[in-house]
UniProtKB/TrEMBL annotation:
Keywords: Cytoplasm, Methylation, Methyltransferase, Nucleus, Phosphoprotein, S-adenosyl-L-methionine, Transferase. Residues 16-95 are annotated as: Disordered. This is Histidine protein methyltransferase 1 homolog. The keyword Cytoplasm applies. One of its GO terms (molecular function) is protein-L-histidine N-tele-methyltransferase activity. Pfam families: Methyltransf_23 (PF13489). Protein-L-histidine N-tele-methyltransferase that specifically monomethylates RPL3, thereby regulating translation elongation. Histidine methylation of RPL3 regulates translation elongation by slowing ribosome traversal on tyrosine codons: slower elongation provides enough time for proper folding of synthesized proteins and prevents cellular aggregation of tyrosine-rich proteins. It is found in: Cytoplasm, Cytosol; Nucleus, Nucleolus. It comes from the Eukaryota. It comes from Pteropus vampyrus. GO terms for biological process: methylation. Residues 48-62 have a biased composition (Basic and acidic residues).
Length: 373
């Protein structure tokens, strides 16, 4: 069943496209030359917007709480939100340039899972997001204040501030279902989970023997509090700790976990900044064989950057698997608009792999380079 209702964002939320408390800038002064004054003016000029929500459908991926907490509200019943619009033409607007950074994997992996409640999906574990949010609110977590901003705006998306990574969006479940039935080859691949949020797509790649997996999210807090813990929970850390008392054996096994996790790298920041960081971080950057991206095309303002990112980072023989709703009410993005955008650029060709026609229609598409030479 799908419910929809409208409400208006409060003024203070829309005025929060400014540097955040932790000094992680939404507009990096060192990069200002790449954003024209008029664009910055336009960003500040966001109009009051109307949002429309839908409740995700039930999905076949059952959630079983492993800890004592109630099952997460975020995956089953939370509200999908389409965020703000403005008075500019689509594709003219630029997202805020939140600086990209790489997140180191903590040495003490057990600490990553401290105060977390783990839930299970078939073959996967993930953090209960309600618990994560409650703790972040309680502890008045320094840095990105996205949880309280998201609460006070009743919104899972605040353009340029919080881009929705603190919940598992519906298309991720479509992706997971697709992975179980389609023979998507992941072993030996270099994979990027772009706009990863929970990171479940990258985790599947990790579990299925991908050579290297990179996770990117807009918000640094999402990477630290959700993505990284999810990856750690899905590594063999727990099994290894429960087996074998021999210290040598244990040490050896632990190093195996560390080795496994070395295949993963974690990044936060806006897409063009991420691109710049990753391309400059390695002399000979090896492009991705597979880019997985779920529910990242809701905002047409980001299409240009997203397209450029895919263009720069995908191997010439690689492919993008992208899942999206048909339309995101309120923001205006959706699969048809995005496909039209891609067609006009004439760089990629797209192919529809699956249409999920229950509730809000959803699509899974493949993108490959049109001209490979
Ligand atoms: C709606 S969430 C989807 C999260 C996750 N893929 C899922 O399906 O559950 C959109 C994701 O795209 C990322 N994102 C959106 N716009 C972005 C931008 N302009 N730059 C960087 N990341 C962005 C956010 O980090 C966010 O996690």
């Amino acid at each position: 069943m799908t419910f929809q209702f409208n409400f208006t964002i409060e003024d203070h939320v829309e005025n929060e496209l400014t540097p955040l408390e932790d000094g992680a800038l939404t507009l990096d002064s060192s990069k200002e030359s790449s954003v024209s004054e008029s664009q910055k003016g336009k960003q500040r000029d966001k109009k009051r917007s109307t949002e429309q929500f839908d409740l995700p459908q039930d999905h076949s991926w059952e959630h079983n709480s492993v800890g004592n907490a109630a099952p997460s509200q975020d995956t089953d019943n939370s509200l999908d939100t389409a965020s703000s619009s403005s008075n500019l033409e689509p594709h003219e607007k630029q997202p805020c340039l939140r600086v990209a950074k790489e997140h180191a994997i903590p040495k003490d992996l057990k600490k990553v899972l401290e105060n977390k409640v783990i839930e299970t999906l078939p073959g996967l574990q993930h953090m209960n997001i309600s618990v994560v949010k409650t703790i972040l609110l309680k502890e008045n977590f320094p840095g990105e204040n996205i949880v309280s901003k998201s609460f006070s705006s009743h919104s899972d998306l605040i353009t340029g501030v919080y881009e929705g990574g603190l919940k598992i969006w519906e298309c991720t479940f479509d992706f997971l279902a697709y992975f179980t039935k389609a023979k998507v080859k992941l072993a030996g691949k270099k994979v990027l989970d772009l706009g990863c949020g929970s990171g479940l797509l990258g985790i599947i790649a990790f579990k299925r023997g991908a050579k290297e997996i990179h996770f990117q999210d807009y918000n640094s807090m999402v990477i630290d509090e959700v993505t990284l813990p999810n990856v750690v929970a899905n590594s063999s850390l727990e099994d290894e700790e429960n087996s074998g008392n021999e210290p040598d054996v244990k040490r050896c096994r632990k190093s195996k976990v560390a080795q496994e996790l070395c295949k993963c790298r974690f990044f936060s920041g806006e897409w063009s900044e991420f691109c710049e960081l990753i391309l400059s971080s390695e002399k000979l950057f090896e492009k991705y064989d597979l880019i997985l991206t779920s529910e990242t095309i809701y905002n047409p303002d980001y299409y240009s950057t997203l397209h450029q990112t895919l263009h720069s980072l995908l191997d010439k023989n690689g492919r993008v698997l992208l899942a999206s709703k048909a339309h995101y009410f309120g923001v205006g993005g959706g699969i048809h608009l995005f496909q039209k955008f891609v067609e006009e650029r004439d760089v990629f060709e797209t192919r529809t792999l699956e249409i999920i026609d229950e509730g809000l229609k959803r699509f899974l598409i493949e993108m490959t380079f049109k001209y490979r030479s």
